[in-house]
Design a protein that fits this description.
The protein is mostly beta strands. It has no helices and 15 strands. It starts with 23 loop residues before the first strand and ends in a 16-residue tail after the last strand. The relative contact order is 0.17.
Length: 216
């Protein structure tokens, strides 16, 4: 407190960073000293003020625009993780991976985290099937977004729509059957047989009975 004055001010100047931190408190406490006495009631020995955060907590969601992948042809399925709000900083989200398909066996294993890079509001997760030698039927891969693990949270998840938090894709593991014409003309005199050619993809160890509908 300068000479000739009874009061002085201690300014608290906020720094507008890019982190979503929520409102924060600054507490100043006076310390006893031989040069002065503190308020004996203890009422005015400390004071607190609040710095409000102007950064909104983003909402993170997941969707599956390409819901079907195939072992035959190794066509990938795709999840998309999105965020709202500012994109100045990267945002990392933890994932829970489940489903009947086995990572590393039925599809290329993926990370249990996904990072939406700075200046982006989406990130892709590709599920790339492995074309093994067995037909196992259709299998699923489910990804569930996990809540922010820090406090205050860096993002929120939908509390009302489970489809924005957890999605699944299907890996099709069945052979593709097709039909073409090998010989288009049949005659009775001389006797000549026309021919259809029915083909399949994938392993050939097991028999396939293809259903047909004949019309003339």
């Amino acid at each position: 407190i300068p000479a000739g004055r009874r009061t002085t001010t201690l300014p608290i100047i906020p720094i507008d960073d890019l982190s979503v931190e929520g409102d924060e408190e600054v507490v100043i406490t006076l310390i006893d000293d031989a040069a002065y006495d503190l308020d004996t009631t203890g009422q005015n020995r400390s004071a607190a003020l609040t710095i409000t955060d102007d950064d909104n907590v983003p909402l993170v969601t997941i969707r599956s625009p390409e819901r079907v992948g195939t072992e035959v042809g190794e066509n990938a399925a795709r999840f998309v993780v999105s965020r709202t709000g500012a994109t100045d900083l990267p945002l990392t989200i933890n994932l829970r991976i489940s489903g009947s398909a086995a990572p590393g066996t039925d599809y290329l294993a993926i990370s249990s985290t996904i990072t939406i890079r700075a200046n982006r509001n989406t990130a892709n997760i590709f599920i790339r099937p492995n074309n093994d030698a067995e037909f196992e039927g259709n299998e699923t891969v489910r990804i569930t977004l996990q809540p922010s693990s820090v406090s205050p949270p860096r993002f929120t998840l939908s509390q009302t729509n489970p489809n924005l938090v957890s999605r699944y894709i299907i890996i099709r593991d069945r052979p593709m059957v097709s039909i073409t014409v090998a010989d288009p003309v049949a005659t009775t005199d001389p006797a000549d047989t026309a021919l259809f050619l029915i083909s399949r993809t994938g392993p050939t160890a097991a028999e396939i009975a293809a259903a047909i509908l004949a019309a003339a």
